[in-house]
Amino acid sequence: MRTGRKLWLAAVAIGAAALMSACATAPTASAGARPAAMSAGEQASFELDRKAILAMAGDYRVRFDFTETVSFLKDYRVKEPSRSGGYEVVRVIEDRGDFISLQHILVVEAGEEKFPIKHWRQDWRYEPESVLIFIGGNAWENRVIPAAEREGKWSQTVYQVEDSPRYGALGVWDHSNGISAWTPPAELRPLPRREATVREDYYGVLAVNRHAITWDGWVHEQDNSKLALIDGKQAIIAREQGVNTYRHYADFDANVALDYWNATKDFWAAVRAEWSKFETPGTTFGLTVKGEPEPIYTPLLELADKIQSGETTTDAAVIEAKKVIAQFTTRDIGTLEQRLAKDVAAR
After folding, report:
1. CA separation for the pair 157, 101 (Å, rounded)
2. Do 21 and 106 form a contact (C-beta atoms < 8 A)?
3. Tens-digit pLDDT profile for residues 287-325
4. Which of 82, 105, 270, 274 could form a disulfide with 318 if both were Cys (CB 3.0 to 4.6 A apart)?
């Protein structure tokens, strides 16, 4: 593994992820199939939705700004703002019409060295049968969505660097007033990586995540309520506003990300397929890792590096990746209190 990448992983492990989110993927997009029996109006709205989602692909200079605004505990003081920035490549890795997957890869410049970091992925599904919802303590519910509730809506599911799940929500794209924006109700989300290893006073974020297309890219606006379990009851300890801006930018070497993806995309497709086995509607699952899932993402990222460097084959790496996923996943998730008690004890 390259020195720069090792430093990045070390930074993640101590919660110093001031490095930015990034996205990259081989540019493959096709119209794909669309739901049957649509009216003309529904078809027009569906195509506008797709156009907005696909507009998030591109090469970007990104900036993340997070500011705590309100304390709800007597002894809690709002934290200093967190601000960071970087370069990001976003590509469509799958497009079936009613399903679109966007992969993010970070391009890091460390002195003379430039290297890619596979980062988050966002999957969009039209009128999904279920949505993968975070329920705290590294566990998720495949929440079944009644047909009437999902009509005309898209789910967004966000996945972590090694393609394990992060959070999901269901919302509608609105194209009024000259803006295309998707705003779901608040759903629970894990701690952001910038705080996951340095804070123990809350376990999740009740977040409203708005995605809106802008004239020069797109923006991810967040209204975050930080949740703690106090005397067995959920309580909001503070609120935070987040604004992540993605502005089209060409003055960096996007091929750093694209070369990585072209070398490793078959490996990551197999990893995605393995994780997808847990997404049966109406079921739950979790990680046996408590807190930051470094024991999962470190070996999987290292396997991808070895594929790119020629140290191993894709087939051999997939076998090892499946072992890692099997080792750190479970259907026996217990209660939230049990999961959080183990989480705190592990820190």
Report:
1. 9
2. yes
3. 998 888 999 999 999 999 999 999 999 999 999 999 999
4. 270
